């Protein structure tokens, strides 16, 4: 079986680094993108199994990326976890309506991330 893949989309290099360490520890091969536009072009060539997605980014935000991803061929496949500081229920509902599988509040740790990935059936 091929290794499962995860794309981490966040404009913070530190967040990407922390998330990478956690996800690689769970056995995933990891790639990174600094914004939604970069992530979208990545997904056009290689569709990951999981996307950890930041909400607020320059160029293209997480919600715009997610809507475009879900409309691409194969774009319904990846499990998408929003990793965000957004706590407003209407914002979270908006993310789920746009096609997110779940969300993780920042800052997160390995235990939280692993349990969320398990909830969406990714680990």
From TrEMBL:
KW Phosphoprotein (keyword) present: yes
Pfam families named among the record's database cross-references: Response_reg
Domain of life: Bacteria
Domain Response regulatory: 5-121
Keywords: Phosphoprotein
SUPFAM superfamilies per UniProt: CheY-like (SSF52172)
Alphabetical GO biological process terms: phosphorelay signal transduction system
Keyword Phosphoprotein: yes
Modified residues (4-aspartylphosphate): 54
PANTHER family referenced in this protein's UniProt entry, alphabetically: TWO-COMPONENT RESPONSE REGULATOR, TWO-COMPONENT RESPONSE REGULATOR ARR22
Protein name: Response regulator
Organism of provenance: Brevundimonas goettingensis
Species lineage: Bacteria, Pseudomonadati, Pseudomonadota, Alphaproteobacteria, Caulobacterales
């Amino acid at each position: 079986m091929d290794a499962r893949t995860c794309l981490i989309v966040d404009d913070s290099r530190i967040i990407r680094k922390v998330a990478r360490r956690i996800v690689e520890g769970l056995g995933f091969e990891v790639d990174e993108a600094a914004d939604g536009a970069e992530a979208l072009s990545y997904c056009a060539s290689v569709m990951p199994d999981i996307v950890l997605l930041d909400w607020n980014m320059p160029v293209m935000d997480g919600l715009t990326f997610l809507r475009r991803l879900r409309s691409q061929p194969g774009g319904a496949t990846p499990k998408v976890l929003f990793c965000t500081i957004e706590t407003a229920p209407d914002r979270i509902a908006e993310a789920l309506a746009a096609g997110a599988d779940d969300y993780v509040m920042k800052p997160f740790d390995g235990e939280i991330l692993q349990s969320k990935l398990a909830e969406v059936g990714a680990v």
